[in-house]
Design a protein that fits this description.
The complex is a heterotrimer of chains A (197), B (98) and C (464). Chain A has 197 residues and is of the alpha+beta class. Helix content of chain A is 41%, strand content 11%. Chain C is globular. Classes of the chains: A alpha+beta (197), B mainly alpha (98), C mainly alpha (464).
Chain lengths: 197, 98, 464
């Protein structure tokens, strides 16, 4: 009987793998377009010059980023090349300091420290702005990154990773851009506390 | 999804697969021992699995497509142990003969 | 003994040693949670975690390589082609691992530039090793592939198992190339990173361990080649049939199109089905042999593999794989619970099974039995299950408090971490981690002594 024959199952294994791989490749090609900067879900890097928010979209049934009017970072608007340079630098900082081995980005990484997907929008920065005497949110974030030990937020402190001012500014730019990526609603209910049942 | 609803749904989904596994394991042992009590136990376990599936379909805040998947998977979980067992016996018997 | 098999012994020994490093680093990481001032300013959580997860990958890879170097010369009927290069590279590999680890511990970070990525830390999970070391890994794997493919070419002999293995080695190697780029766009970076991680641990590695278990079954239970090959093809079809598009369960929230929620969720939900078949098969094998075998430790570890794979990957995975649940569970200790259970069941148990099988052959024993292995087996498995259960509780608490109620902000994160259930789970995890570590110590002692201490259990001459 055919089912007893390994050749039957070998053919099944080969054809399954081939078909699934072809589908994966087709979906990958489509996805790459969507996730490239300027694609449907990922904004151009110059979005760091704009106001970014994250609101519930009733039509979609999930939270979605909202890109608003001009809101330059560190008080100055940057062109496409400079924005890209900041993002490139920010990512190098994030990798060199192994941020992903304490924090998560889009929920990926390590779970010892908070998820940073919407860190740019975190309401806690208002408090930190006041405490650090910073004029803007981005200034507070830079101050924190450059000296997280003095500025520790709770018992589990972030260590000092020797982040310089330009590196901190690039990282903040990166976080602002990241907050504008459409993540299909992750994290849910951001900033909206629900009452316990 | 509400907060408690999240935890309850996840637990139900885990229980759903765990009970399917328990049914499969007891079914296999029943075939080995040829013991009717074990066979009945395996059916009870599958019954509990089915009940879990019904609760998920009736109550969990999932869209219709996922509920269809749950029902279809339950059918697959029912069939996998006997089909696997029969196939195992067949291939090993062919070995002995051939 | 073939030179390839002598090399196998070295790889298996190195694997077991790195398993120990992984355990120590794991205890350190777990203790950071319990006492956040632990080694503050000296060695932080992220470095301990890097050591833990990178040694995980390397000890398992070395275990696979050791197993394959052991089985292949008998499969081909001759020494492996290029074995001398492989022997030299073993020492290079171990040396590189040592240097990378020391740099992680002592240097830790560089500046935000390419130099840091080339020489210190690349900061991408599981592939944090600097680029120079990644090149080394590629060379080691390429020579490994050459050993396999070259010998097949020279002997013109290809069995079903070696055919599957050889086809599998190609994507295994190619996928690793994602260890090099530093893509600025986080969505694109993670997209390709998941090709490497998922298509390694939920695809190509599944095939590798399938081949290894096929050889192990043949030697342990005397199962015929025809049967193991038949089931290997079925496993490849089902596991890759669900796992290739199951990759989509990592594409829910990284900026990818929302059709991945459906596709990834669907195929991922199907992944437990073949694992149930594997469990049935394991019960069949155990039962028809009446749990009798010439090597009980190897047999028990193989059973643990089938059950652990189903529970850790299938049950635990199914809990969190539907996107509606995953939205809340994603990136929490729930994930950690699943990850520990799945890696243990799918790979660690299988490698340990092979280690015991090889020891039986090397010590020339007709029967391999003892007492200590049972303690080790119990402590490791109970320790692991205890950790997993504790992390499940912490994960529930975190998903509930931080995500569902708290709104996923910094303050919500803190509330989750300080939640009573979370903390109790985290402390319990550490305690069970200590049990696991004790099991490891017993394992090493047992591997060094089993079959040697009690001559009455050993018979002179070669094993059957």
């Amino acid at each position: 009987m055919k089912f007893d024959d390994p050749a039957f199952w070998r053919a099944g294994a080969i054809s399954t793998v081939v078909v699934m791989s072809i589908v994966l490749i087709m979906l990958t090609i489509d996805s790459l377009a969507v996730i490239s900067p300027g694609g449907a879900n990922v904004p151009l890097y110059t979005v760091i010059n704009q106001h970014i928010d994250y609101k519930f979209d009733a039509k979609r049934g999930s939270d979605a980023p909202v890109i608003g009017g001009p809101e330059p970072l560190f008080g100055k608007s940057v062109d496409a090349a400079s924005a890209e340079a900041l993002i490139d630098k920010g990512k190098l900082v994030i990798q060199s300091r192994a941020c992903m081995d304490c924090h998560t980005f889009f929920g990926n990484g390590a779970y010892y420290a908070p998820d940073l997907t919407k860190a740019w929008l975190d309401p806690a920065w208002e408090t930190w702005q006041a405490i650090t005497g910073a004029a803007t949110r981005e200034e507070a974030m830079v101050k924190f990154l450059m000296d997280p030990v003095t500025n520790r937020t709770w018992t589990r402190a972030m260590p000092n990773l020797g982040i310089t001012q330009p590196e901190a500014e690039a990282t903040v730019a990166y976080l602002k851009w990241m907050a504008a990526v459409d993540t299909n609603g992750f994290p849910p209910n951001f900033g909206r506390m629900r009452s316990k049942p | 999804m509400s907060d408690i609803g999240l935890l309850q749904t996840a637990l139900l989904l885990g229980l759903y697969v765990a009970l399917a596994g328990a049914y499969g394991i007891v079914y296999a042992i029943a075939r080995l021992q040829d013991a009717s009590i074990l066979h009945r136990t395996s059916l009870i376990l599958y019954g509990l699995h089915g009940l879990t599936a019904i609760v998920i379909v009736a109550w969990a805040p999932l869209q219709v497509g996922w509920k269809v998947l749950i029902v279809a998977s339950s059918g697959a979980f029912l069939a996998i142990p006997p089909i696997t067992w029969r196939f195992l016996q067949q291939t090993h018997e062919t070995e002995v003969q051939g | 003994m073939y030179r390839s098999q002598q090399l196998a012994l070295k790889y298996l020994a190195a694997a077991v040693a790195l398993f120990g490093v992984m355990t120590v680093a794991g205890l350190m990481s777990a203790y950071h949670y319990v006492n956040p001032d632990f080694l503050f300013g000296v060695l932080h959580f992220n470095i301990a975690k890097i050591l833990h997860i990178d040694t995980l990958i390397i000890w398992l890879l070395m275990g696979f390589m050791g197993a394959i170097y052991w089985f292949l010369p008998e499969e081909f009927g001759r020494e492996l082609v290029g074995i001398q290069a492989a022997e030299i590279l073993f020492y290079v590999f171990c040396g590189a691992v040592g240097v990378v680890a020391i740099v992680f511990i002592v240097v830790q970070y560089g500046g935000g530039d390419e130099t840091a990525l080339w020489f210190i830390n690349q900061g991408r999970k599981y592939v944090e090793a600097p680029r120079w070391a990644a090149i080394g890994v590629v060379v080691v794997m390429a020579v490994f592939a050459y050993n396999v493919l070259g010998t097949a070419y020279v002997t013109r002999k290809v069995t079903g198992i070696t055919a599957v293995l050889m086809v599998d080695l190609v994507p295994l190697l190619v996928l690793y190339l994602d260890a090099f780029p530093a893509i600025s766009n986080m969505s694109a970076d993670l997209f390709w990173w998941w090709w490497l991680v998922h298509l390694w641990v939920e695809a190509t590695w599944e095939v590798l361990i399938g081949c290894i278990m096929a050889w192990t079954l043949m030697q342990l239970l005397g199962t015929s080649r025809r049967i193991v090959e038949l089931w290997l093809y079925i496993e490849v079809a089902l596991v890759l049939g669900t796992g290739i598009l199951g990759l989509g369960h990592h594409y829910f929230w990284i900026g990818t199109p929302n059709y991945w929620l459906t596709i990834g969720g669907l195929f991922s939900a199907l992944e437990p089905l073949p694992l149930l078949g594997m469990v049935i098969h394991a019960v069949y094998d155990a039962g028809t042999h009446h749990m009798k075998t010439t090597n009980r430790p190897a047999f028990y570890w193989m059973m643990a593999e089938a059950f652990g794979n189903f529970l850790g990957g299938g049950v635990w995975g199914f809990m969190i794989t539907l996107p509606q649940v995953n939205l809340y569970a994603h990136g929490t200790q729930w994930t950690v619970s699943h990850g520990h259970f799945a890696f243990w069941g799918a790979y660690a148990c299988g490698v340990l099974s092979v280690v015991y099988l090889v020891i039986q052959k090397v010590r020339g024993l007709a029967h391999l039995e003892g007492t200590l292995w049972k303690w080790s087996f119990a402590a490791l498995n109970v320790g692991l299950i205890g950790m997993v259960g504790a992390l499940l509780v912490s994960g529930f608490a975190q998903a509930f408090v931080e995500r569902a109620i708290g709104g996923s902000t910094h303050d919500a994160f803190v509330a989750g971490q300080e939640n009573r259930w979370f903390v109790e789970g985290i402390v319990t995890r550490f305690i069970f981690g200590l049990m696991f570590a004790a099991g490891y110590v017993a394992l090493v002692w047992d591997l060094l002594t089993i079959g040697r201490r009690a001559p009455v259990l050993a018979t002179a001459g070669a094993a059957e």
